[in-house]
Design brief:
299 residues; globular; alpha/beta; 12 helices; 14% strand
Length: 299
């Protein structure tokens, strides 16, 4: 089955971008900030929060980084102008982490200052393992001055539990997810259940140490286990939230919302949708299979 899934994803990656876009657009708000605002308003009307993400990563020039920063500032302005229940997510390599660390920190400082002005929050995404150390180190530098910033950690990385033990001492605000980048087995768990088990081990430690956690998963098993852990430990609802991706498992999203738990949807938008879509396909080959079947059934 794994070989079949890999073959299907490889096939989809060979398709023309316009064809992939037909099926990928369900998972992306659109190409403009107006699209992200519209989707957020629709979700807010259902009592669901969002985090808006400007698609793009691993840019090559400072000019591109500055353009990404300006788009992030525009997101924060739009959230305030439209009175949205939303915050901002961003990727370090999109803003210059691997080009110039001081430049990157200056970019983030400007964004955090704008968010602070609006009493809003910024989430720093975690990317592949080549940037993990730098992402954590620069996050800790920013945390010395700003409390309105959080970070993402990934349960498939073997190092993450130890990272969390140290970060908990600083009162870190987390998004905990499985992780979707392709990593070597020596640094990442590969089995489905061992990634799940590490997720729950990390979550329990975060909650035990009193940290705020965004429990980011579409895995029904992890949702059920998180429910059990929250109830067992009598965790207050203001110490966690659930998080999911736009367009994915909306029935589960609505169930969590109906159960009275805070749920936040990650709403991506922008012209750089292709890489994001392919990663989603790698994470969920069943989606790629659906695309493949749809293509061959077209009349």
């Amino acid at each position: 089955m794994k070989l079949l899934n890999s073959a299907i994803v490889s096939f989809v990656k060979l398709l023309p971008k316009p064809v992939v876009h037909i099926f990928a657009k369900k998972y992306i708000a659109g190409e403009s900030l107006d699209d992200a605002v519209r989707v957020t308003k629709e979700l807010n009307a259902k009592g669901i929060l969002t985090t808006i993400d400007v698609l793009g990563e691993s840019v090559n020039t400072k000019k591109e980084c500055e353009q990404a920063k300006n788009e992030c500032l525009a997101v924060l302005d739009a959230i305030d102008n439209h009175k949205l229940n939303s915050n901002l997510s961003l990727k370090p390599t999109q803003l210059g982490l691997i080009i110039d660390r001081d430049f990157y920190l200056n970019q983030l400082t400007e964004i955090l200052e704008r968010a602070k002005k609006y009493r809003n929050f910024v989430r720093i995404d975690m990317e592949d393992s080549s940037t993990t150390d730098a992402t954590i180190e620069t996050f800790n530098d920013l945390r010395k001055k700003y409390s309105n910033v959080g970070i993402v950690v990934q349960s498939y990385l073997r190092r993450t539990f130890n990272d969390v033990v140290e970060q908990n001492k600083l009162g870190t605000h987390y998004r905990l997810c499985k992780g979707i980048y392709v990593e070597e087995e020596k640094i990442a768990y590969k089995g489905v259940q061992e990634v799940r088990d590490n997720f729950m081990k990390i979550l329990e430690r975060m909650l035990d140490d009193g940290n705020y956690v965004g429990i980011a998963t579409h895995d029904d098993w992890l949702v059920e286990e998180s429910y059990k852990l929250i109830k067992k430990k009598n965790i207050p609802k203001d110490k966690f939230e659930f998080q999911m991706l736009y367009g994915v498992k909306e029935n589960l999203r609505d169930r969590i919302n109906a159960d009275g738990y805070k749920i936040r949807i990650y709403v991506p938008y922008g012209g750089h949708w292709y890489k994001y879509s392919i990663r989603r396909l790698q994470e969920n080959p069943q989606m790629a299979w659906h695309i493949t079947k749809s293509i061959f059934s077209l009349n």
